[in-house]
Amino acid sequence: MSLAGQYLINGVRTAGGRIDIARLPKVSLHDHLDGGLRPQTILELADEIGFELPADDADSLGRWFSESAASGSLVEYLKTFDVTLGVMQTREGLIRVAREFALDLADDGVVYGEIRWAPEQHLQRGLSLDEAVEAVQEGLELGIEDARRDSGHVLRVGQLVSAMRQADRSLEIAQLAVRHRGNGVVGFDIAGPEKGFPPSLHLDAFDFLAESWFPVTVHAGEADSLDSIRSAIIDGRALRLGHGVSVAEDIEIENEDDETTFVSLGDLAQWVKDREIALELAPSSNLQTEAIAAWGTELSDHPFDLLYQLGFRVTVNTDNRLMSGTSITRELSLLSDAFGYDLSDFEVFQLNAAAATFLSVEDREDLAESISAGFDELSA
Fold first, then answer.
1. How many CB atoms lie within 10 A of CB 172?
2. Most CB within 10 Å of its CB: which of 14, 320, 351, 367?
3. Within a domain: residue 1?
4. What is the dihedral sign for C-alpha 57, 60, 62, 68?
5. Nearest-5° angle of CA 236, CA 239, CA 242?
6. Within its chain, how far is the Cα of 235 from the centroid?
7. Residue 113 DSSP SS3
8. Structure confidence by residue, pLDDT tens digits, 288-315
9. By the 8 A CB rule, do 67 and 350 touch?
């Protein structure tokens, strides 16, 4: 599209006037609860329970998370969660973290979010699985009410209950998710180290979920090959792919000359595109964990734009707000800098995400309408 006569404001091109990206209505599909704590909250919760931290002030602690997460290894990246999980082992801690998480979503302009977390990692101080889910739901509802009361922001949030793929509790966690489907839980996920722990190891859980008509997203194609994505779709019946970056490995590009380029999709990539299986891409995180190493070392090397131009259902996510020091607002701005996206592109990304939520079809349609109305209002 032509950008003539437009202005670059805070990373977004507008047809005139100043538009703050944070005010745009957004949908968050891939946002980890234990990856989105405020550094000051970590300090205060750690002090309450006597948990030792790698830094003793909020600024230093925030830098420690950013530097540790930028190691270039998913395994090392995941080690930072030892700290956040350490202060999320009590009912009070979970309520506070979830409440603040909802408020941070609202500040980011999110109108609908699905936050994921693994209850099995929060039982060290006596909580049961059900008590943990209930505490998080209570915190989310408090945060939603705070945002409505304090700023008039209308936010909806659903829980995605994750099972750790390296453990053997996936069926139990799937049953937990279904048990709480009327109490805020909207979907299931498997998380943790991807390589060596394919979705096929959890067939009993995925069979149960399918029989229960319960939606699934699966971390796949972030730190492993196309086989991981294949297993997520076939064994996990995944409706979305957590990251899914490596699907681009199934795309062949041939440049015949300076003006002619041929693109061909393998069977797997074609299936993901044709079935509109959403890709929960998180640009900054993908760069940190070297999920895009096959394509380069800069954000502009990310296959995001290739997938977008080819018609895949790409969505923009944070993955872990604390570790990547980011927000959806920031991710959109970075993508605009890297690929020249403007307001209309941002709207497509949000509509893609709205269509991929685990809401009912009627609610998805209402969400899409509200997003488009919000974009129209801000761009008028």
1. 14
2. 320
3. no
4. negative
5. 80
6. 22
7. strand
8. 988 999 999 999 999 999 999 999 999 9
9. no
pLDDT band at 204; cut points 50, 70, 90 = very high
CATH code assigned at 294: 3.20.20.140
Q: Give how many domains the chain has, as a whole number.
A: 1
Using only the alpha carbons of the chain, give its radius of gyration: 20
Give me the amino acid identity at 40. Answer: Q
Pairing between β-strand 12-14 and β-strand 7-9 as defined by DSSP bridges: antiparallel
pTM (whole model) above 0.90: yes
List all residues 6 or more positions away from 353 whose beta carbon is below 8 Å from its beta carbon: 26, 27, 28, 29, 278, 315, 316
**Tokens coding 71:** 């190691």
Q: How far is 190 from 76, CA to CA, in rounded Å?
A: 19
Helical packing angle, 361-379 and 343-356, nearest 10° = 170
Alpha helices of 223-342 — where are they, by DSSP H? 226-234, 267-274, 283-288, 304-309, 321-324, 328-339
Catalytic residue at 222? yes
DSSP 197: -
Residue 54: CB atoms within 10 Å: 12
Taking the C-alpha atoms of residue 85 and residue 372, their distance in angstroms, rounded to an integer, is 37
Assign residue 29 a region: left if phi > 0, alpha if psi is -120 to 50, beta otherwise? Answer: alpha
Cβ atoms within 10 Å, residue 183: 11
